[in-house]
Amino acid sequence: GQNIDQPTEMTATEGAIVQINCTYQTSGFNGLFWYQQHAGEAPTFLSYNVLDGLEEKGRFSSFLSRSKGYSYLLLKELQMKDSASYLCAVIGGTYKYIFGTGTRLKVLA
Amino acid sequence: DAMVIQNPRYQVTQFGKPVTLSCSQTLNHNVMYWYQQKSSQAPKLLFHYYDKDFNNEADTPDNFQSRRPNTSFCFLDILSPWLGDAAMYLCATSRETGTGAEKLFFGSGTQLSVL
Questions:
Q1: Among A92, A107, A105, A108, which residue's Cα sits nearest to residue A7?
Q2: Which among A2, A48, A82, A27 has a CA at the least distance from the CA of B104?
């Protein structure tokens, strides 16, 4: 079967660092995406990993371990506007994007 | 700016009354997708088009159909909506590169209510 697991909710303080984990079990693997989704809005692209290791993009970094079926999104210097849901998505086959239910992040002042 | 546009932003329909949601894109992407997302749930793929080739997910109800008359436009038809179809409907596109693994560009979504 196809399964993607993320924590449902996380809380962190403005200026802090938070790590959002994602584990997956899929019948194929063509890469893993992270998307940010503010309430009532469409998801927006954050990062893409297809090889093992860390990809850094400003305040956001994403890590992948294919052998462990594991990824994380690291957010540094948290800002209030980072309060959103963060969706992990795996491409299990050609054009088959499988989304996790998302992690709702609350950033507190 | 090139983008994916969905209309309307909010749609209210009645139980059993057919409704059509529309999506257009200026990105000239080959692949277009329709996702259904219910509150606090993952987006669920309903179907996708690769050019004019239609690909239906096995668990997409027959009540949902789609049309793609040209590269730019794609429509989602809900033939007989029921309360369980109330959700956000997201249109997305991606650029075909031969890997089937390009990022998705989403429209702003249509929030459907069924009364």
A1: A105
A2: A48
Q: Indicate the length of chain B as a whole number.
A: 115
Sign of CA dihedral A91, A92, A97, A101: negative
Would you say the C-alpha torsion B17, B23, B24, B29 has a positive or negative sign? negative
Give yes or no for a cis peptide into A43 (omega within 30° of 0).
no
Quick: pLDDT tens for A90-109: 987 777 788 999 999 999 99
- For the record, the structure tokens of B75 come out as 């429509």
Beta pairing partners, B11: B112
Nearest chain A Cα distance for residue B79, angstroms = 24
Rounded Cα distance, B112 and A40, in Å: 12
For an interface test with B, the pick among A38, A94, A103 (most B C-beta atoms closer than 10 Å) comes out as: A94
B33 inside 8 A of chain A by CB:
yes
Whether the CB-CB separation of A21 and A9 falls below 8 Å is answered with no
Q: What does the pLDDT look like over B18-44, one tens digit per residue?
A: 999 999 999 999 999 999 999 888 899
